[in-house]
Each structure stands twice: as structure tokens, then as C-alpha cells.
């Protein structure tokens, strides 16, 4: 960790260029002969990324950042705050601490947090940053978390793990056994120290695949931020053998959309032709696969088994986008020419053979405007287009 970047002159340079183009700055003369200019530019680039993702860090003086890529890969403050609500007790150990954003929020709910990080430089950086953030109940350990657990033998309420994919596993199907640490292999070892384990994975991990590798899975939280799924949280409890709860969360600027159900619940969806209103589930629900449960819980009819769009005669609150169906047309030359050719519209396809790009090109439809068009398949397997206006 290069402490020279903390000198007042360099920190002022970073502050003064926080809105600058880093590539343009790189072409300028190096203003500080005693410090690696690339390291300074990396601080600017990483801090720029932190402005919206990590506002607490951005607003705090003398923070040292890892690479811009590391900042991009770390949890956002909003998702970290959410996962902190899932834990309680006196002791939590994070086995793959990283930049420490999750631990910062865990420390607001847990008496003592232990941050383990195998990278010595990153561990020192995080310890420095916690001091700047006035966090006193996080203890930082540098080294392999397995060895630290074995040496310390702590009594923990929670273990938290954010395993990283091994470089040689790139391109393969994402499995937990391909990550470091290897959670499935070490699970019994971890349960010696804590009865509760939370594992964070990327959305790429298939739910069925994750469940096949893990045991005692009490809940899976699918967390989206502004309708983009950011992470899966696997909550394990020692000895738990009951049904797994699926909890979907979409964190929006002004509200949080939540939807939950028991995995493998036997509920049947209702189906109908398009009615007055159309509903599109948010990204977290789409990841969950709970499409029959959406119909059952909200009393909505699906347009078709594989379309994953819903309809009703009466408008309801819904965790996703809502539309009023202004017109239904068939996907044929005459109706497309009459209603959509050379028009401006927002296009979505669900269970439809043509891509958005090919539809735009074929019918010369420009992007944007207030018209929302859903190209989909109805209960009679007819290709249809729903011309809609968006509702709040």
C-alpha cells in the first residue's frame, strides 16, 4: 500500500480532478516525481466509480482505493445495507473480506466483525479505511481464512463468504466448487464455528445448480438494484432441512419491491387472452423462476406458459412494470404496416421468435417515445403485439 498518495498535495490533485478524463490526464506531465503517476490515476478512476456506488467512502477524506475493477466488483452500499438486515448477534467473520463494504454495514448490526483477506496489501488498505470511517468494531486479519479459522477457533453467530471464481474456471459453467474458497467442500468445517452462513454469489449462478452443491439452505435472496440483478444471497442454517424460501428484492430509488415464495410450491397459474392491463415482473422475479406463484399471489392471468407476462381487468400494485393495453394487433404484414411501420416505440419481446433488433430493422421502428410494444405469444399460440402506455 503506497502511503505517499495520502500526502495533502496528491489528495488535493485527486479532488481537483475527480471529474476529469483519466485517459486525458495520463497524457499530461507527471506532477509528482516521488509517486507512481499510474497509482494516482488509478485512485481517481476508482474514486469516480465510488461516487454513486460507495458515497460514504467517496465523501470521506484519505480513503485509499484498490483498482477501478475491484471497486466495480465490490458490493454497492445499497446491497450491503440490505444484506446487513439479515444478520444479528455478537460475532461475524467474513472469510473473503475484499474492500470491506459488506463488513462496514455488518458492523452496524453485529457487535464484532472479523475481516479476513488473503491479499496483504488489500487487508492493510481496508484497515486504514476503517480508521478513516471511524469504525472500531472490525478486526482485520491477513491470510487464508481456513487457516485463520483453524488457528482462532472462534465461536461465531455468522460466517459470510463471497467466493471468487478461479481464473482457470473462466468459460466453464459457474459452479461453487470452481470458486475460492471452495464452499461445498468446506461447509462441514465452517459449521463447526457458526450455525448460520451467508454466501454471496453473482447472478450467473443457476439456482438449481447452487442447491445441488449446498445443503441446509434456508433462504435464497435475489437482490436487484434499479431492476438489475446484482447478487444472490444463500442463507444456510446448520441442520435445516425444511423448504427453501425464495425472496426477491428490487431496490429502487423511492421504494423496494419484494416478492417471496416457497421453492417447489405446487401452485398453478391462470391463463387468459390480454385484458385491460399488462404486467412485466422485475428482474429479480424473472431470475427466481416463480412465474406460477406470481399468478397465484396477485390473482393475475398469464398470457401463455412461456411468455411470463400477466394481465388483469383491474389495476393492481405490482413488483415490476405496469401498462395499459391500448390496442392488440396480430403480427402480420397488414397490421404491422398500419400501426407500427416507421413509428417510434419501445420494444420488448417475450416468448417471441424475432429479436428486438430484427423487428426494428424489418419494420423501420425507431427507439423511444411513449409507446411500449410487447411482441409475444398468447394462450392460443398466436404471435401478437400489445401496444401499451406505461403506468406509474
From TrEMBL:
The lineage of its organism: Bacteria, Pseudomonadati, Bacteroidota, Flavobacteriia, Flavobacteriales. It holds the Pfam family PG_1098_Fer. The keyword Protein biosynthesis does not apply. Residues 320-390 form the THUMP-like domain. Residues 277-319 form the PG-1098 ferredoxin-like domain. Keywords: Methyltransferase, Transferase. GO terms for biological process: methylation. It comes from Flavobacterium rivulicola. InterPro entries: PG_1098_Fer, SAM-dependent_MTases_sf, Thump-like. GO terms for molecular function: methyltransferase activity. This is Class I SAM-dependent methyltransferase.
Amino acid at each position: 500500500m503506497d502511503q505517499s498518495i495520502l500526502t495533502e498535495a496528491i489528495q488535493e490533485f485527486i479532488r481537483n480532478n475527480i471529474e476529469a478524463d483519466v485517459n486525458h490526464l495520463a497524457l499530461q506531465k507527471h506532477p509528482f516525481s516521488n509517486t507512481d503517476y499510474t497509482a494516482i490515476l488509478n485512485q481517481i478512476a476508482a474514486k469516480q466509480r465510488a461516487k454513486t456506488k460507495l458515497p460514504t467512502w467517496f465523501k470521506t477524506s484519505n480513503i485509499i482505493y484498490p483498482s477501478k475493477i475491484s471497486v466495480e466488483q465490490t458490493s454497492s452500499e445499497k446491497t450491503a445495507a440490505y444484506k446487513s438486515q439479515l444478520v444479528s448477534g455478537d460475532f461475524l467473520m467474513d472469510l473473503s473480506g475484499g474492500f470491506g463494504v459488506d463488513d462496514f454495514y455488518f458492523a452496524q448490526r453485529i457487535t464484532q466483525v472479523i475481516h479476513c483477506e488473503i491479499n496483504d496489501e488489500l487487508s492493510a488498505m481496508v484497515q486504514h479505511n476503517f480508521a478513516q470511517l471511524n469504525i472500531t468494531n472490525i478486526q482485520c486479519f491477513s491470510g487464508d481464512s481456513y487457516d485463520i479459522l483453524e488457528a482462532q477457533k472462534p465461536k461465531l453467530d455468522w460466517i459470510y463468504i463471497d467466493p471468487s471464481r478461479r481464473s482457470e474456471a473462466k468459460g466453464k459453467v459457474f459452479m461453487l466448487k470452481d470458486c475460492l474458497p471452495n464452499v461445498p467442500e468446506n461447509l462441514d468445517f465452517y459449521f463447526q464455528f457458526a450455525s448460520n452462513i451467508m454466501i454471496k454469489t453473482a447472478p450467473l449462478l443457476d439456482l438449481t445448480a447452487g442447491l445441488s452443491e449446498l445443503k441446509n439452505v434456508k433462504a435464497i435472496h435475489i437482490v436487484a438494484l434499479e431492476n438489475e440483478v446484482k447478487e444472490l444471497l444463500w442463507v444456510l442454517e446448520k441442520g435445516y432441512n425444511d423448504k427453501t424460501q425464495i425472496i426477491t428484492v428490487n431496490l429502487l430509488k423511492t421504494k423496494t419491491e419484494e416478492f417471496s415464495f416457497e421453492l417447489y410450491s405446487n401452485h398453478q397459474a391462470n391463463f387468459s387472452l390480454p385484458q385491460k392491463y399488462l404486467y412485466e415482473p422485475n428482474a429479480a422475479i424473472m431470475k427466481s423462476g416463480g412465474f406460477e406463484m406470481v399468478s397465484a399471489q396477485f390473482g393475475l392471468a398469464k398470457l401463455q406458459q412461456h411468455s411470463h407476462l400477466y394481465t388483469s381487468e383491474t389495476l393492481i400494485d405490482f413488483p415490476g412494470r405496469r401498462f395499459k393495453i391500448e390496442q392488440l394487433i396480430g403480427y402480420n404484414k397488414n397490421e404491422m404496416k398500419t400501426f407500427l411501420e416507421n413509428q417510434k416505440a419501445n420494444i420488448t419481446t417475450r416468448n417471441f421468435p424475432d429479436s428486438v433488433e430484427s423487428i426494428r430493422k424489418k419494420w423501420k421502428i425507431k427507439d423511444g417515445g411513449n409507446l411500449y410494444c410487447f411482441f409475444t405469444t398468447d394462450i392460443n399460440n398466436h404471435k401478437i403485439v400489445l401496444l401499451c402506455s406505461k403506468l406509474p
